[in-house]
């Protein structure tokens, strides 16, 4: 993992994001190697992971509760501004105990990830997604 300021084209950023999602979905390869050594990754209920060690901790925590993730590549919408790429889309999965999600009409499996790149690597990633994948926090479903 190295840092340099080589600018990426829109197409390169989109391809890197797609590779990231394929790795999250279980494709062979190293997710950690896609990030700079000083990366910052935000995930709700975790906070911000700084660097590869904390990123591995964040990923390990998610993998303890989830058997797999499946991102719908056809639903992805890419918006680019400078070295920042926002990706909106749909994701489904299965919990470690075998329950599929999204399983509730109010939880559609929507997410928005915002990537920043440096030297062909991800330097910052903010993941905006409800971490209550199974919609178990029903007390806050105010519209049912």
Summarize the SSE layout with pairings.
Layout: H1 10-24, E1 35-43, E2 47-50, H2 51-65, E3 66-81, E4 84-95, E5 100-101, E6 110-118, E7 121-129
Parallel strand pairs: 1-7
Antiparallel strand pairs: 1-2, 3-4, 4-5, 4-6, 6-7
Describe the structure.
It is a single chain. The chain is an alpha+beta fold and 144 residues long. It has a single domain (10-129), classed as Nuclear Transport Factor 2, Chain: A (Roll). Helix content is 21%, strand content 42%. It is built from 2 helices and 7 strands. Strands 1, 2, 3, 4, 5, 6 and 7 form a 7-stranded mixed β-sheet that branches. Strand 4 (84-95) and strand 5 (100-101) form a beta hairpin. The radius of gyration is 15 Å and the shape is globular. The N and C termini lie far apart (47 Å). The model has no long low-confidence stretch (mean pLDDT 92).
Largest sheet: 7 strands, mixed
State the CATH class.
Alpha Beta
Helix % is 10-25%
What letter string, H or E per element, gives the SSE order? HEEHEEEEE
CA radius of gyration is 15 Å
**Number of extended strands:** 7
Low confidence ranges: none
Estimate nothing, just give the exact number of structural domains: 1
* Overall residue-averaged pLDDT value: 92
- Bin the strand percentage: 35-45%
Q: N- to C-terminal separation?
A: 47 Å
Q: What is the CATH architecture assignment?
A: Roll
Counting H and I runs of at least 4 residues, what is the number of helices?
Answer: 2
- CATH fold name: Nuclear Transport Factor 2, Chain: A
Broad shape: globular
The helix/strand class is alpha+beta
Organism: Streptomyces antioxidans
Pfam families: SnoaL_2
Domain SnoaL-like: 30-124
Protein name: SnoaL-like domain-containing protein
